[in-house]
Amino acid sequence: MTLWISGYILLLVKFGLVLGCLLFLAAYLVWAERKLLARLQIRYGPNRAGKFGLLQPIADAVKMITKEDIIPAEADQSIFLLAPTVVAATALLMFAVVPFGESLAIMGQRIPLVITDLNVGLLFIFALSSLGVYGVALGGWASNSKYSLLGGIRGAAQMISYELALGLSLVPVVMLAGSFSLVDIVNAQSGYPYILVQPVSFAVFFISAMAESKRIPFDLPEAENELGAGYHTEYSGMRFGLFFIGEYVHIQVLGALTAVFFLGGWHGPFLPPFVWLLVKMIFIALVMIWIRGTLPRLRYDQLMALGWKVLVPVSLVNIIVTGAVILMVG
Amino acid sequence: MTEIQQKNISILTAITAIGQGFATTFKHLFRKPITEQYPEEKRELPARSRARIVLTRDPDGRERCVACYLCSAVCPVSCISMQSAEKPDGRRYAAWFRINFGRCIYCGLCEEACPTSAIQLTPDFENCRRDILTLVYEKEDLQVDHGGKDAAYNFYEYAGVATDEGPKGSHEKESPPVNVRSNMP
Amino acid sequence: MPTLTIDSRQISVPGNTKVIDAAERLGIMIPRFCYHPALGAVGACRVCAVNVKEGPMTGIQMSCMLDAGDGMVISTHDKDAVDFRMAVIEWLMMNHPHDCPVCDEGGHCLLQDMTVSGGHGMRRYPGPKRTHQDQYLGPLVQHEMNRCIQCYRCVRYYREYTGYKDLGVLGIGSRVYFGRTGDGRLESPFAGNLIDICPTGVFTDKPARFKGRKWDFERAATVCTHCSLGCSTITSSRYREIIRQEAGISPDTNDCFICDRGRYGFGYANLPDRPRQYRVNGNPCSRQTAWAKALDLLDTTANTNNPSTVALLVSARCTLETLVTAKHLCHRKGWHGPVWDAPSGNDIKSRNALDALAPELVATMKDVRESDFILAIGTDPVNEAPVLTLALRQAQRNGAHITVIDPRPVSLPFDFEHLPTSPEEMGDQLAAIVCAALGGTDLSHLSPAGKAFYDDLVLRNAAATVPDEIVVALKKSRHPVIVCGTHMVNEDLPVLAGECARMINQPERSAGLFYVLPGANGFGAAMFTETHTNAGLLLDKIKSNDIKTLIAIEPEGCAHVHSSPAMAGILKSLDCLLVMDYLESPLSRAADVFIPTATVFESGGIFINQNGTGRSMQPLYMGGTPIFQTGRTGPPPRLFESDIPGAEHVPAWLPLADWMGLSLSPDNSKRRLEILKYTIENEPWLSALPISGDTGETGIKLRIPNRRLNEFASLPHTRNNAGNSNSPEISLYTVEQTFGTELLSSGSPALDEVIPQIRAAMHPADAEFLNLADGENLTLVLDENHELPCNVKIETDMAQGFIFIPRRPDLPWPVPGFAPIPLHPDQIRREKGDLR
Prior knowledge:
- The complex is a heterotrimer.
- By secondary structure, chain A is an all-alpha fold.
- Chain A has eleven helices and two strands; from the N terminus they run αααββαααααααα.
- Chain A has a two-stranded antiparallel ribbon with strand order 1-2.
- In chain A, α1 (2-40) packs parallel to α10.
- By secondary structure, chain B is α+β, with helices and mostly antiparallel strands.
- Chain B is 24% helix and 15% strand.
- Chain B contains five helices and six strands, in the order αβαββαββααβ.
- A three-stranded antiparallel beta sheet of chain B has the order 2-3-5. A two-stranded antiparallel sheet of chain B has the order 1-4.
- In chain B, β2 (80-86) and β3 (92-100) form a beta hairpin.
- Chain C folds into four domains: 3-93, Ubiquitin-like (UB roll) (Roll), CATH 3.10.20.740; 207-343 and 521-627 and 644-702, Rossmann fold; 349-517, 3-Layer(aba) Sandwich (Dimethylsulfoxide Reductase, domain 2), CATH 3.40.228; 730-834, Beta Barrel (Barwin-like endoglucanases).
- In chain C, β31 and β32 (787-794) form a beta hairpin.
- In chain C, α8 (320-333) packs parallel to α24 and α8 (320-333) packs across α25.
- The radius of gyration of chain C is 28 Å and the shape is globular.
- The chains are: A mainly alpha, B alpha+beta, C alpha/beta.
- Chains in contact: A-B, B-C.
- The interface between B and C is large, with 40 and 42 residues.
- β6 of chain B pairs parallel with β6 (129-131) of chain C, so a sheet runs across the interface.
């Protein structure tokens, strides 16, 4: 009984820590992005709220919470209200299967440093990722605005297309690790990170992941200069904030997943495991910002061609090669 | 065959180009930002930059505006209004002249339309007010005591109408008035 | 019907059509300066050049001088033609000053348009420009000769079209000068048209000088309300002020021109002292208070008195809507009236005229212009209906013989025959002319009534002699028109004139009948007012306490002639006086309740002109105190208000409709259509008018009801010898003048300077009898309370036994309606010493 209660309490503590950490990071990722992007463009970025603009995320939060929540007159109300929560929730939930350290032993009890170790963790991630499409597509549709609808449709098409490449790029990883559990995959990389043996897979995964998170150069669903702000044109206040949080949590999740699948997860010398994971996550996020600061947006046909004509065939070939190598090496 | 070759080449050049791009942005990280910190650092704007509108005067210090209504006609936001009238000396002038800077978009079309160089935009752009009525400028608020960008021009020297500037035939490029009672050329 | 090709499009046009007109029919507007539809072509400006590709003469030709010929092929946008026109514009612009910003024509200047559209943007000629001195041309027209492009439109209009001679062309070559021989006011009362006709800014509107640009004006097509002709005008307003009027184009009435009375007479709508507030007992109050007080007073009188003690007074400046509503209100409530407040006797004469106006005889101004014989009887066109003069002038230019039978010193800018005749003898003159012309004609087709009428004519014929050439001209004529006035005539003359027109209307000769009525809506007033009463009788009834309540709606004569103690006494015996008006008058100041009404510019409305053409006017602007007045010459107020200051006025029909219990929409524009619908539906003969109120440019011709069709009237042969010159008495008549006598325009500040001083016109024989010299000051003693100082003007060309003075609204006239006063020589006092 006590065991059960303590387990429950532990779970809640883990929840709280991870959620707090994620949201805090999301807020400061925004700050970091604005700051870094500014420097890439030889600007200062936010520097008025607090030292180095460090209070900017708080100011933004206050602004968004206090702003009027506008619902367009002809919008489909319930769906319009639901869509941002879908986006934010799916992004947050994905972190549930990401391990951030080896099991701890406290008072003789083994505590796994992961919220839940699913044996089909990878499939869980794909499932949530697919669900996230609904947030975008429904948000775009429910706004009853042509820009939003176009953004929503673009988002749906783009995410469905790149999910395929995303999935296929991870097959070699699963083949190498022999498990769908993220904990097992991380443990399998205790010797060397998979990036060394699977660079092609890494590249395909990284590109697809960026497309999944709708980041520049794949931000067609929210292309400011064509569609206003795409699927969230009509959103304001904290509902817009939820989309925003969803996007930045997504960046962290993708950073964490990249770390888990290719960079050895929490493995690393000298530093505690969760710090290693954090460092890797942040590194990936910074690279994404750098890409945003450098590359222009793709055209829609280029986007589709890249997904279907390059990434999918490349990952298929990669699977065959990996399979053959595994068979040969035994 | 050649197509594939070209494609390979283009993929290579594309990758280098992308690489260059990343290098460029990366190098920018270490440059000093060029941003000017506006309220602390103020910059001298060029004379032709377009902000607050003024009514200038001719070289003799008289009002240039003849209230021809061209600026108000051309104004895309209809922020200029006036009433023309005649002075005893025959000069046409604006009895009142009003610009609503709350509406003005500083497009400069009024300055372009002005045949007398009277209405001019100045670089002074800092005119935000909390009370919107203080943005409605009357003629006294608009008038300045100089000729602005075109200091030497005097419309009535060229217009050919009789004013205190001089009677018929006394202006630039005018011959003396015809004597209709004579047929001598 | 020659068929020609212009810019690859074929068109068939009637013979004698100029190429420029043929192109216009195709929608191709060839540039023009000197060409004007009313003036014709002279080929002076050279800007209408086209390239004739095939035809009798190929090459560049002036399209205004070229008759359209069969098989011609013409290009208007051929490079040669375009280059030619561009060169013409450039040389026209060579001397043109750089003063568009200070020129009032800027914005609606033909030269500006042609220069810009012709592509001439930069001046290449570096030499000096020729300049001209300007002239003072009076208070209405501003002169600026530098701008002239020598198209000759002004002198062609002024000398040829109107026939006045004081504006002409001087000099030669590029030194050509259009002006007078010296400074001075232009004599023509049609000089304002120079402003419209000048393609550039040589002649501009002086009262509207520097008041705004065309693009800032609210403009609407309006109907002139300063006489009964109903000329078409275009009115411009800005900042709640009427700025200027231009001539509208209406072929059936004014063609392209209007008189200066119509052009500058709008000033009454802008007057600073125009009453804009409701008043109870002279104290300003709110609309609700005045409205309630008026209702209260009417209720009280209804309860205490017989409804027939309430009288309604209307005038010819009321709109048709007001007149109809007034009539229905009176009928419904059993009130007395509506009474037409017309100058003495004009009401009955107008009714007689309309009774005689047979549909087949009705002549429009166009008919007058095209007629070949005009007999104007009892009318002084320049002074009573100025634009009629222009129509007569056009007929005269086309060779018509024009005779004017009138006692007044009629002056017209062309050759005509004037028979100065006293009102009593005018009928005999007319009868004599008609009899002589009909002599020898087969009259067997006439009905017995017609024969009786002819016999009557023959009887009258014996009493007068007429010059033979008039009879000869009438005999020869194919389209004679009889123009008959309603002021200086006896009551039966309009009927006689109408029947005479019918007599001479024969298969080979289609005659026309043209009445000049008093007031803009004299036609409507005659149709909708009570027939058995008039303003004089009404005053008698007030005196005898038969009328206790008077409701005066935009009154005319009574309002402005009551300053005498007698009139004040009459008004005192009233229990209640309600006045609705947009002018201040002695009557409005004495009102118990005063309701400010809207002018026609603010309310719109229908007016029926003298030939029965209904023309409607849309409201031009909302009304209200002009911004210039609220701002006291400074800028307008900076803060927005929900109400328009001084816009409390209502259309005159609104209170009437309210008292009648009509439920009208509170919305202004809807209400206007509702009352229009009511008006049209409740008066069957108005059913030709459209309910939308849009009568178009030409108006709607109305058929007059109850006209005795094909039956001649039997006139009582009432010939008296009152006009005997041996009588020591002289009749003092008030007469209309172009400026200063018409009520509305006399309040216009623009016309102040052109209103002449009061002069008493008299025949040399009378002057000799009274021992008076021309220009001498004298005082006419009208009665014990009224003296009229004036100045003698000896006119040879008038009837003997009359003194004519202008009928100024502010004249202290002792008799209602300006009825003529017989003067004994004792009543005429010289300034120095007695007569004789």
